[in-house]
Specification:
The structure holds 2 protein chains of 2 kinds. Chain A is mainly β. Chain A contains no helices and 11 strands. In chain A, the strands form 2 sheets. In chain A, strands 2, 4, 5, 6, 9, 10 and 11 form a 7-stranded mixed sheet that branches. In chain A, strands 1-3-8-7 form a 4-stranded antiparallel sheet, with no helix packed on it. Chain B is mainly beta. Helices cover about 0% and strands about 55% of the residues of chain B. Classes of the chains: A mainly beta, B mainly beta.
Chain lengths: ~110, ~110
């Protein structure tokens, strides 16, 4: 069966510091991968999606970037965090319908 | 701007009652519709998907789709306290990459 991992689970970072969040999927090949952010009390905002190695589509212009160095690995990065980057970051995968399947998430607090 | 609208709630129902959750969407060409359940502090979990007009039943859950009215609903029969969560409606285009999520409806089931 398929499993998706995210780490770290929680993170507290100062403003202006860098960020690297990692997501890996097991048990499937060539998945579509997604990064979402959920602000407190808000819906899910799609940040990036990827249909293959090195193929990244950005949905929202901001100070975040994503990379997919391996088929089942998806990384979210920032060079300098802003206060507004705080939130619950979720990685998800899909192959074909139905739907997307989410990892456990990383709760990021920027102080 | 493509949107998915949900009543934020909270919706409070007694144990054993039917909970009815509603969602409207703006993009008429949407093809795939999903309901996710999200417990507090956890990641969303896919519970239902529906692609054609009418009803789809899975255990205590029934999803209903009316494309002409751009309306999706989720019925939960015999509601249990363990159903207390936020329910996210999600709508996707044909390719499934760009899924738009509603902000969710909070459901409380009183024992």
């Amino acid at each position: 069966s398929q499993t998706i991992h995210q780490w770290p689970a929680t993170l507290v970072q100062p403003v202006g510091s860098p960020l690297s969040l990692e997501c890996t999927v097991e048990g499937t090949s060539n998945p579509n991968l997604y990064w979402y952010r959920q602000a407190a009390g808000r819906g899910l905002q799609l940040l990036f999606y990827s249909v293959g190695i090195g193929q990244i589509s950005s949905e929202v212009p901001q100070n975040l970037s994503a990379s997919r160095p391996q088929d089942r690995q998806f990384i979210l990065s920032s060079k300098k965090l802003l206060l507004s980057d705080s939130g619950f970051y979720l990685c998800a995968w899909s192959v074909q319908l139905p739907g997307q399947f989410f990892g456990p998430g990383t709760r990021l607090t920027v102080l | 701007q493509k949107e998915v609208e949900q009543n934020s709630g909270p919706l409070s129902v007694p144990e054993g009652a039917i909970a009815s959750l509603n969602c409207t969407y703006s993009d008429r060409v949407s093809q795939s519709f999903f309901w996710y359940r999200q417990y507090s502090g956890k990641s969303p979990e896919l519970i239902m998907s529906i692609y054609s007009n009418g009803d789809k039943e899975d255990g205590r859950f029934t999803a209903q789709l009316n494309k002409a009215s751009q309306y999706v609903s989720l019925l939960i029969r015999d509601s249990q306290p363990s159903d207390s969560a936020t329910y996210l409606c999600a709508v996707s285009n044909t390719g499934g990459f760009k899924t738009i999520f509603g902000a969710g409806t909070r459901l409380f089931v009183k024992a």
